[in-house]
Amino acid sequence: MILLLLGPPGVGKGTQADLIAQHYALTTCSTGNMLREEISRNTELGAAVKQYLEKGVLVPDSQLFTLVEHFLAEHMNGGLLFDGFPRNVNQARVFETLLNNIDLKLDMAIDLHLSENDIVERLAHRRYCSKCGRTYNLITNPPKENELCDTCHIALMRRTDDTENVIRRRMEIYTQETYPLITYYTSQGKYHQISAQGTKQEIFARITNIINGNKA
Ligand SMILES: [Zn+2]
Questions:
Q1: Which CATH class is domain 2-115+178-215?
Q2: How far apart are CA 102 and CA 118, in angstroms?
Q3: How far is ligand 1, taken at its centre, from the CA of residue 48, in Å?
Q4: What is the DSSP letter of 105?
């Protein structure tokens, strides 16, 4: 089974990706994590990518395709979950070709959906620990003690880019970029939108219903 998980920042995609991967024994392909790993291992690709990031420009598609191609070559015999790639139609077309080349196909694109106001509301409650990096949400995933890290017992911080204006701008860019993807996967009969309202267990139950129904 090959799945793609879509959803704007703040929708709880990382949490659901972990739950899905664990439940269905899938290997996750997160291009963001893979790029960070290439950089920390100081590979040729990592060095190139680092330059783009330092200049504040997007990593070119060709570099992403190389990463994904290597990932597919290594993991083509098991179930896969793609998180954060492809994020536009051009990438989706190349992704399809890369899969076809090794006789694989994408089964479903699952889109976690939350209204913009709900995302702003949710991100307003997001906190992190500056010491260990653990993330919390005061509503959906609160620390044991009021605004203190469970492990480090120091005050939690709010990310500076979680202000309402920045969140709305990020959403706008995300929507512009990914809206055509929805059309693309809908026309292939692979698109499934899932409400990201509620607890992580409720959301995960909706996802497993869709996946299990699709497999049957
Ligand atoms: Zn901590």
A1: alpha beta
A2: 40
A3: 32
A4: -
Distance 156 CA to ligand 1 centre (A): 8
Catalytic residue among 36, 50, 87, 200: 87
Taking only the tens place, the pLDDT of each residue in 93-126 is 999 999 999 999 999 999 999 998 988 888 888 8
Please give the Cα distance from 123 to 10 (Å, whole number).
6
Q: Is 87 a catalytic residue?
A: yes
Q: pTM (2 decimals)?
A: 0.81
Least Cα distance to 122 among 142, 145, 147 occurs for 142
All structural domains of the chain with their residue ranges: 2-115+178-215
Cis peptide before 86, with omega less than 30 degrees from 0? yes
DSSP run (H or E) holding 182: helix 164-187
**In this predicted model, what pLDDT tens digit does every residue of 161-186 receive, in sequence order?**
777 888 888 888 888 888 999 999 99
Residue 39 near residue 50 (C-beta atoms within 8 A): yes
